[in-house]
Amino acid sequence: MDLNAVAEHFRQGIAGAIDGLVDRETLAELLILGAVAGENLLVIGPPGTGKSEAIRRIAHVMGGKYFEYLLGRFTEPSEIFGPVDLQKLQLGRLETDTSGMLPEADFVFLDEVFLGSTAILNSLLSILNERKFRRGHSLIDCPLKICVGASNQLPHEEHLAAFSDRFLIHHFVEGVADHQLESLLAGGWSLRQQPPSNTRLLEDLSLLRARVDEVDMSIVRPLLGEAMRSLRNAGLSLSDRRMVKSQNLVAAASLLDGRVVAGAKDLWPIIYALPDAENQEQARDILKDVLSHSESSGLPAAAEEASLGKKARLVRWQSFAQTLIKDEPDTDEQPELIRAWHAKLEAMLRELDAAFDPEELDDSQTILRKLMVTKVETCRSTG
Amino acid sequence: MSFNWIKRQSPLAPEAVLLPFSVQELMARIQPLPGWLVFGSPGECVVRSPENELPWFDGCEYLGIDPLWPGLFLPTKWQPVLPQRELLVKALQTQGFSLPAVLSRPNRLLTLGQPAVKL
Questions:
Q1: Is the preceding omega at residue A275 within 30 degrees of 0, hence cis?
Q2: pLDDT at position A188 over 70
Q3: pLDDT tens across A111-150, in order?
Q4: How far is A282 from chain B (nearest CA, A)?
Q5: Is-above-0.95 flag for pTM?
Q6: Number of C-beta neighbours around residue A181 at 10 A
Q7: CB–CB of B29 and A350 under 8 A?
Q8: CA of A33: how far to CAs of A30, A168, A169, A250, A272, in Å?
Q9: Pairwise CA distance, residues A86 & A92, whole Å
Q10: For B56, which of A174, A181, A349 is closest by C-beta distance?
Q11: CA-based nearest residue to A22, from A196, A173, A148
């Protein structure tokens, strides 16, 4: 099967897993990008925002082995990696029985990942870097496709910052917007109907993963170098390690778009290689000319968010607001319907005003906001 | 003491709203919701409630809590810059200052005290 067909089959298969994940398309797409690139993903955001659901569904639809754990300060290494193999211990060998545990999983989700003990984080380091589990006499090649770590915030401690650096992709999520609550409820309901597993997708992933090193980077490398220089000149911190590894993401983005020659349109993933939200937002501004070429048929939400950032949120808001205005009920409709529509209108204005100042809106967004303000005020004055 | 403010990259979740009119005017303009805590001061008021029940008015300022500034409601879109942040927070906490309070732009501290209306 040619690359385009593999990428297309993979994209189609994954689409079923993403369906119903409200406002989490970017997260799911970054997960796929990381799995193809062989890089790990760190998700920073409040609890209960659908982080684990995204990876659980993708692992299920691909038929891979899945392991998830909520780490705490008192979590024992055996809870993650498996207990000591007592039979082998009697023979004088310290080995771990890893059956059903993290070292044997294809997809891993670790919530509150920075709360793990030093022993856990050290063992995790070699799994994340080399896909190898080492403990006592145990040395196991791990089938890990991607590890997703989650936390409320980035750590400030130096040793934990070094650990978080092992997650090349950093993604910052917020709670689902108020006006999307109905979609969230409907999506949550549809998530109960799990899409069927398709093990061919795991084969597709392996095929794509194996071809990352074959991607021709000769066109994109000078552009990447120029972009990195611009970031450095602006004082943004991107370690040499992250700079070099971000090439894996660019190559994977190109493959997922069905191409073996990476170009300017594949540069967008470098935004996610910047470690904190503030740097990511500044980088979007510094690299806006480069990012204006961003395009990905396979990962459209992630490419859009990389190039637009906060503006992507504004664009989504505008699209929802336009639909809402179009769906305005007639005055002779049931009062409950009119009240519900009015409440949604207020919720959308609340979301906008809590996040953006008027000068951040473009002309069409300003006009749309004014129209909504007039409708709310008319509705209030007429009771 | 004066502050500088910078734009937040990610806004805080709204937990209150500062409205540019009195409690009486608020009550005259819309039907209050159960669970609201309304705090008044001359010519303005603050409503605390879960985010999805906060009122919206043109020109209102949404407020949220930043863990770095405990006990203070801050504008959701803005972050104060103050080198001795810990000193200010400690001073507010230890000198009998009534918390929570609202710290808003440009340099204003508004104490909330007891709610004028508790629904």
A1: no
A2: no
A3: 999 999 998 999 999 999 899 998 888 889 999 999 999 9
A4: 9
A5: no
A6: 14
A7: no
A8: 5, 11, 9, 9, 11
A9: 10
A10: A349
A11: A173
